[in-house]
Amino acid sequence: MSDRSPRNRAPHRRPDKVRQLAYRVIRQVNGDDGYANLALNKALRDQRLGGRDAAFATELVHGTLRWQGTYDAFLARSVSRPLGELDPELLDLLRLGTHQLLRMRVDSYAAVNEMVTLTRSEVGQKRSGLVNAVLRKISQRSFDHWIDAVAPSEDEDRLGHLSIAKAHPRWVIDAFADVLGSGQALDELLDADNEPPRVTLVARPGLADVDELIEAGATRARWSPYGAVLQGGGDPGRISAVATGRAGVQDEGSQLVATALATAPLEGSDTKWLDLCAGPGGKSALLAALVTEREGELTAVEPLKHRAELVRSNLRAVPGDHRVLVGDGTKPTWPSGWYDRVLADVPCTGLGALRRRPEARWRRTPEDVTELRPLQEALLGSAITSVRPGGLVAYVTCSPHPHETREVVDAVLGRRGDAVLEDARPLFPGVPSLGDGPDVQLWPHLHGTDAMYLALIRRT
């Protein structure tokens, strides 16, 4: 069939390659349960995009996914039938167009025309009219005016208003409000979740130092003695220390909780450490480097083979006889009380890393919290059993949800009489606003880190 019709005698334009790349990455995420960072990085490498094009593609992908729920509320007022009746491919095109119109400095005429062209290329000519009409309707209001039109008023339902205005599912906001209250701190957290995170590096002790990373263009991190921030983004792999595994990409919060476990006072032997839930291996590499300095060894356990390979890759530059085991951390194959220090960085909803995982907020459900709870308790129980009397366990999650943090710790310790909570706050020197203790909750809006949680437990 010809590209020309009586209504459109000009040949169809080719779609903009950056928008096309962004749309296809979004489809991988929403259609195939992909991960935005992995899919986008691969697409940029495959298409050899860098500089402004890469930055534009990143904002298109991450921004569209981050604000997806809010855009759906706008689109529901702009489409004549329920959004659930639209093809997923068409809905993602509308979301991508809405992001350009309302949250980016893209001329509205250009944004609509480019999206119509992309629609013709990706889903066919018949759908282009609907995309054109809907996006023109979206362009008639600013972002703030759309919020006023679709969100409940703050006086009527403050948390419901924040759910639309700050692009977080209501159940997530309810959970955050349980910890922070419903005032300014909650607003600040939600705003921080919507800011792109900085690229934070870790210099693995004995292999690299922060000065080397600074010479490569980074600046010193705020809290971690091993941390540096890569200014202006860019590819961390261009830095020699990162490329060779002597340094890595690791959020500062992750560095802090691993360092806290390593530096907590311990009497007696201190050469056998265990990472019970190791994949993908960032904390494992930091702990392995630290225990190597004490002439000790790390055992890293990961149930999935492909993630165990990631752990091995992270450990490749660390000297010593460190082991990576493919196995179930809830079913130890080692004797009880074998280890001196144990990290239990348990699987969780990841609600503390919404800055860097924009799709996670819409993918997770309250049921995930309930379903993960038995595994979290089992892993913590296994960690306590694996550590010797006097030894230390760090229970860690990348979630501030109360059901995944202190409630898990209280439930496990309440069933056994051989372990006690210790005050972890002194292990974060110089870090403010750590709460009432004895556990520690880090926050994006207070500390610039992921919302990492740490409970330090000593076996008695």
Features:
SAM-dependent_MTases_sf, alpha/beta, eight-stranded mixed beta sheet, 12 strands, single chain, N-utilizing Substance Protein B Homolog, Chain A, 13% strand, disordered N terminus, 460 residues, 4 domains, four-stranded antiparallel beta sheet, 20 helices, 16S rRNA (Cytosine967-C5)-methyltransferase, RNA-binding
Walkthrough of the structure:
Keywords: Methyltransferase, RNA-binding, S-adenosyl-L-methionine, Transferase. Strands 5, 6, 7, 8, 9, 10, 11 and 12 form an eight-stranded mixed beta sheet that branches. The chain folds into four domains: 17-143, NusB-like (N-utilizing Substance Protein B Homolog, Chain A, Orthogonal Bundle), CATH 1.10.940; 151-193; 199-242, no CATH class; 252-459, 3-Layer(aba) Sandwich (Rossmann fold). Helix 5 (88-103) runs antiparallel to helix 6 (108-122). The protein is of the alpha/beta class. It has helices spanning 17-32, 36-47, 51-66, 68-76, 88-103, 108-122, 125-138, 143-150, 158-165, 170-180, 184-193, 210-215, 240-243, 252-263, 282-292, 305-314, 360-363, 366-386, 406-414, 444-447, and strands at 199-203, 218-220, 227-230, 247-249, 272-275, 297-302, 323-326, 339-345, 387-397, 419-422, 440-441, 453-459. The model is unreliable at 1-10 (pLDDT under 50). Helices cover 47% and strands 13% of the residues.
